[in-house]
Specification:
The N and C termini lie far apart (about 35 Å). The chain has one helix spanning about 1-30, and strands spanning about 40-50, 55-65, 70, 70-75, 75-85, 90, 100, 105-110, 115-120, 125-135, 140-144. By secondary structure, the protein is α+β, with helices and mostly antiparallel strands. It is about 20% helix and about 45% strand. The protein has one domain (about 1-144): Jelly Rolls.
Length: about 140
């Protein structure tokens, strides 16, 4: 039990540190060249040997106006999202459709259905961070 509590505490501390670092990095970088659809920039990736070999990663996602992805799941990942700019619409599991703006967050438990993931604006891009603590033995994303 104590080992589980320590592991969870380590994951929480790592996530907080990653979120702070990733926000700084995302805001300090200039945006990538314009293009259609969605762009991902990996900002950080590290295997955490002391936390059951989990992989911590931080990605910046940019979605063009109206762009979204189909329903999917992340079987082995705790996923935390943080909106940097624009409006992001998200629906996880049986939860309500959320319209998130800058500074707002969302969470997906491993295996939860990510039913809606889209830019909520028809005129502005949305930029958000995705912070994941993942089991590398499970698929990253599985479409529904």
């Amino acid at each position: 039990m104590r080992k589980t509590v320590i592991s969870h505490a380590a994951v929480a501390c790592a996530t907080a540190l990653l979120a702070s670092s990733a926000t700084y990095l995302a805001l300090a970088q200039s945006p990538p060249a314009a293009g259609a659809g969605v762009r991902q920039t990996e900002l950080f990736k590290k295997t955490m040997d002391d936390v059951l070999g989990r992989v911590a990663s931080v990605r910046r996602i940019e979605r063009d106006p109206g762009n979204g992805s189909g329903p999917h799941r992340h079987p082995g990942s705790h996923t935390i999202g943080y909106v940097l700019e624009g409006t992001y619409e998200v629906k996880v599991g049986d939860g309500p459709l959320q319209k998130l703006g800058p500074g707002e967050t969302f969470y997906e438990a491993p295996g939860a259905l990510h039913a809606v993931s889209r830019n909520g604006s028809s005129t502005q891009a949305v930029k958000y961070l995705v912070i994941q603590i993942s089991d590398p033995t499970k698929p990253q994303t599985v479409p529904e």
